[in-house]
Structures are given as C-alpha cells and as structure tokens.
Amino acid sequence: MSIYLIQRLGQSLLTLLGLSVIVFALAHLSGDPVSLLAPPEATAEDMARLRAKLGLDKPLHTQYLIYITQAAQGDFGESIRWKTPAMGLILDRFPNTLLLSTSAILFGICLAIPVGVVSAVKRGTLFDSVGKVVAIIGQSMPSFWIGILLIMAFALYFPIFPTSGIGTAAHLVLPSLTLGGYVAASMMRVTRSAMLDALDADYVRTARSKGVSEWRVIWKHAFRNAATPVLTIIALDFANILRGAVITETVFGWPGIGKLAVDAVYARDFPLVQAAVLFMGLVFLGVNLLVDLIYTRLDPRITHG
Amino acid sequence: MRNQNIRSKLRYKIFALITAPWLGLCTGGLASAAPEGEMVIAAPLLIQNFDPTNHQSASDYLPHSMLFDGLLNLGATGKEPALATDWTISDDKLMIEFNLRRGVKFHNGDEFTGEDVQFTFHRILSPESTHNARKPIIAALDRVEVVNPFKVRFHLKKIWVDFFTSVRSGGTGAIVPKNYYEKVGDKGFQQNPIGTGPFMLSSIQAGEFSKFEANPNYWGQVSNTKFVTQRLVAEPFTRYAMLERGEADIIMGITGPLLEKIKASDKLTTVSTRYSGTSIISFNRGTNPEFKDRRVRLAIAHAIDRQAIADTILGGVCEPATHIFTPGTFGYQEGIKPVPYDPAKAKQLLSEAGIAPGHEVDFTTHTQSFGSQPNAPMVLEAIAGYLEAVGLKPKRLPRETGAWLAEMRAGKQRGIFYGPSSVPDDGGSLLRSWYGYQAWCGEPCNFGIKEYDQITDAQAVETDVNKREQMLQDWAKMERERFEIMPLYWCSTPFGITRSITGWAPGLLSAYHQNLQSVVFEK
What is the ipTM metric for this complex? Predict the structure, then answer.
C-alpha cells in the first residue's frame, strides 16, 4: 500500500507540473492583461511601462521559470486585479467552498440515496416514476434559475433565509439546496441503477431465501455492493463542486473559489488563474486518491499493488 | 476494542460534521440585515485600487472620491474650494497659484501641506508612474512649486484648459500624504490608504467587499452615515432581492424589469446620475470604403429604431442621442435634430449609393458590456438585426473587452464598430478622443477633416470659456451635417435605494462620484 501511495504521489506531482505548463501557456495565449488594465487612451509607451511593472515584458520561458521556481517556494505572485498574494486569496476562499460543497453534497446524499434505493426496490411504481422525473428535472434545470427561484420563495415571499452572502448557517441553506439539488439528481440515478443490478444478484436471492429481513437485505447486502459506483459519482461530484460552483456562487454572492477563478480569467489575472488552477488540480487529485483508498475498504476484492 | 473506539469516534465526528451547519441554523440568527448605522452598497463591480497616484480607470473614482480630496470641487455652481481655498491664474495662463486650506488632517493625523500636493503631482510625472491620465499632465505640467506650507504654484509648459478638471476632487489630482507614502511605499499605501477624504478605509476582503468609516475630523461636511460597505454582488436579481429585504441600502447596475419593480415599490425608490455615458457607432472607411459615402452612414442611422431598443433592451436607462455631446457636456448644442427611424428612407439611401441588397459589412459585436453602455452585447445584436431588415448583411465579429481594446488601440477595428464614453463632461475631450488625428481609436477615427483638427487644437488652448464653448457648439452643428459618426445613446446610471436614504443627489455625468457624505441615512 505504501509503495502504491508513493507511486500515486509521484504521478500527482508530474500531473501538477504538466498542469502548470498548460495553464501558464493557455493563460498567456488568452491575451495581454495590460490591454484591460491600461485605460483606453493608453499609448504604446504607457502599456510597455505597465507590462514591465508586471514582469510581462520578459520572454515567455523566462516568465515560466520564474513562476515555477517561486511557486515551488509557495509564492504564486500577486493578483493583478486585487493586488494581494494570489495563493492567499485562494486559501481565504477555500474554506467557504469546502463548507458549501460539503453541505451541498450531504444534502444531495440525504436526498438521493434513500430515493434512489426506494426507486429501485419499488421499480415500476409511481414512486419510481416520480423519482425519475425529479432526477431529470434536477439535472436539466439551470442552477442559476433554481437559485433565483429559491431566493424569491424563501428570501422574499417567505423571508426565512438571507438572500446572499456568508456569515451565519442560514446563509448556507439556499446555496446548498441549489447545488445539492443538482448533484442529487445524478446520484439518484446512479444509486437506482446500481441497486437494480444488486437486487437481481444471486447473493440477494440467497439472503432472502435464508429469511433475512428485507431491510437488512436492501441495506446490508444489496446497498453495500451497490455502493462503489455511488461512491464514485459522489466523489466526482464533490471534486467538481470543490473546484468551484461558479453559478451558485455568483447568484448567492458566495465568496468561493470558482467565481474568483472565473473572474480572474475574464480579467486576465494570470497569477490568480495559475494559482487557482493548480490548487483545483491538487484538490481533484487528492479527492481521487482518497476515493481509490476508500474503495479498498468498501470492496476487499480491490487491492493496490 | 481499540479499533471499535476509533470507529466510534470517527462516526461521532462524521455525525458532528453533518449536523453542525444545521444545528448552527437552529441556534444562529436567521435572515440577517446590515448592522445599525451601516450603509450597504451592492454593486456589480468592486474597485480595490486605493492608490490615486496609480489611477487606472474612471471606476477608480468609486473608492477614491470617498478617501481623498483634490484641490477643488467641480459642482453645480462651477469651481468650488476643497483643499485649496482660492486660486489665481497668471496673465500668460502658465502659472496657477493655490492657497491651501489650513488645519486639514489626513486620516492618520498628519497635517496637509503644500509638500503633499507637490509629492502627488511629481509622482504622477515620474517615469515609473502608471497613472492613466499622466499623458496630458506630462504634456502640460512642468512642476509644482511649494512657496510655503500653505501656498503652491503649478508651472505649466503650455496652456492647459483641462487643468481644473484634473486637480478637482475625485479627479486625477487626489492628494496623498507625502511622509506616510514615502514611509510605507506603494504596496503599503495600497494596503492601508490614507487621505483627507470624508471616509476612511476600515477593512477589505479582496474581491468581496470594502468597508469604510466616516471621517469624524473631515474638514467639510461630516457624513451622517457611520459605516459604508461596498459589496460585490454580480447577479442583478440578487442585488434587487437584497434591496427589497433591506440587506442593501443602495444597489447599482439595475435595468429593465427589475428597475420597474423598484420604481413601483412603496418601500424603494430610485435616484439617477444623468448622462453618465454617451456612445456612438463609428465606421472604418479603410476596411469598408462604402462608409466614405455620407448617404450610407445616414442610411444606417435611419435603419435603427434606437427608441425601441432603449425601451426594451435598455429598460429606459438610456435615450437616443442626437449628438456625442450630452446635454450635460460642456459644448452641448441645443436643437440638433436626431436622425429618425425610417427603414424606407434607409433603403432608398442605400440604393442611391449603389449598395445592393445582401451587401456584406463588417460589424464588431461585443461579448461583454464595457464603459457606459449597459447591455452592449444585446444592443449591438439588435442593431445587426435592424441592418439585416434594410438589406445589409452584417458580418458579426464578436470581441471580448480585452481584444476589443487591443484592436482599438492598434486602429484595427473593422467596418461598423461601437464606442462608449464614460464621464462625458467636456466636449473637447470627446472631440479629441473620437474624431481626428489625436483620436485614441487610431486611424479609423481619423477622418482627415482639416476643420475638425483645427477646432480640436484651437479649443485646447482657448482660455476664454465662452469662446471655447462656442467653438465646440459650432463643431457640433458641423458634425450633424457631415455625420461622420452616428450618435447612439445617452445613458444614465440609476441607483435603487431604500427609504432609509434621503437627500441624495448623485449629480450629473459620473456614476463614480457618488458624493455619499451628502446622504442622510437613517437606519
């Protein structure tokens, strides 16, 4: 296991290095931040002065070497737009994103798994049909629209929750419902599908013939075996929303990492874009590694190395 | 047994993680409003460049006009004293002497003196400065002389008619404290800016909010609002909901149905900065020689129902312009007739000019709004539709803001292109920016018209205000005849406000000079 871990960490490091090259190249291909920073009337000399001030006048490979050397020491440069250390901004926002993602994924799990399991058990019934319709609606309705509807309903017509921002637990509810509802839809479908396979398996039939209670058959025998694909989709959804739920963050003014990164792309804030993408890459790799390790706990047949 | 304990603890931790936010929900406050005495402004933009000697764009005035003062204010009655109490201009117009206000303190307690004025302007003049308005300052300002701590002299290289606009409060001449700035450097100043203005910066969260506190020792009118928070909220509906709920007291960037809802509400109202922007459609005669023909330019103006676009897409925030000068612009000429919407006339003019139906024209569209024109992408798409209706075939060339600016600076914009202008206070600067050999949009805006260039140069050195105004008005009439550029819209900037705000008049021409110290705020 430890050899496997070392191998995975080495691979992750190489992936991050590759990612740094790609994001550096793409960021610089996207255009010149000076064209946005300088006023419309700026002359070529004004722009050259500003470019030099930002260190963008050096050859691209020199800029990359400076960037990667400093990044290895934890210095990702200063955000051009917000004039503050880029990684500091990311780390400031990450707890907010983690809080929202965790809350949303927990809401998604609490909704999706019982509904997915019951839909599979009661296959072909009205409950199953309603569950499918809800899942399709959940996946197809744009989250900005759901968010606005929730604000209208629960912040304006029934003023229970605040409209936006961060501060109390109440601020977390509407964005979590918006984001959780979206991820619940995919979880629900995967849970139902995995449970249908499991319920048709021989060991379930054997358990039933042995007189095991239906509750135990469903949750102990079938669901445990159906959990691997469900865990995969939960992990993927979690990693995705950890990287930033841009729309939800924008609608609710939630100060998360995704909106920060997208704004940085529009502003051509290279240091912030690079820091954000590398950080998100790190999170994604970390979550994937964690899931691979959890697989071995859930299914002893899976071994590493 | 040990493993069981670990599992049990782990389960407990997971349970705690799941339930903590929801327990917090039960025990914590539910919907929260802003604290007492705090005015919250929710806006689609947040400016956190706090160093006025590194001024980058017109929107920088949002924080700068709160934190800093200039030597004078430009108000409804003209020039009003600010950090200078009075001034005299030499006979040759090349030296302006200011007597400075005594007893003014910076936020850190340092006394304001002439050294600070000299430091501020010499910093802008220095080669390493990236101040966006340094070009005209370098061209005209030789040096600032400190005669004594409360008297300074500006020595000019040449006559500079925009001088007082440059040294006004909220303009490019916001004064910074010399000693403090030299001590903390530009990075330190950006983190902890100090000015003499009506508000002091109390805290910021980069990209989220800036909090200000009223300056109790302000030399002028001390604000009745104790705290002001500028908060970035990108989604318009969320800003509206915040206003409705009382979570925000002022919201910016509202148009269309949401603006109508605010106007219809008993609890809310609107105030507006009138003529805070003007926009035009220009024509590159190089890429599309057909635009050399005045009939084609006029045909395009007749083809577009600007009023319909104003009523629908722009939600009543903008009105069709008769000229690039707004009624609030120095040099505005009354009585200029707009080109009416008349598609039949447009077709006739195109036919007379030999333009066959289906003729392709390059048309630069925008993916984002920029400057003073709200909803620019939709407005330009609507215009393209009107051009199609009269038989032209616009070839859409979509541009995001950075690409568009780069194209404009290089003079490479093609065919029909759009141009907005914020803070349209002086006709001379609009003339210089959009027409002739000095235009920032380069060769496509240089129409090679001698009279235009002569007026541009002459008004720039004319110190008689009446004569200068007449020059600009004459030019305005001439341009209506020649129709080199099509005026598009005069836009206002509406603010949604709650009833807790009274007595606020943001004034003309700039949404960025908010004059918040004049607000009476009761909450």
Answer: 0.81
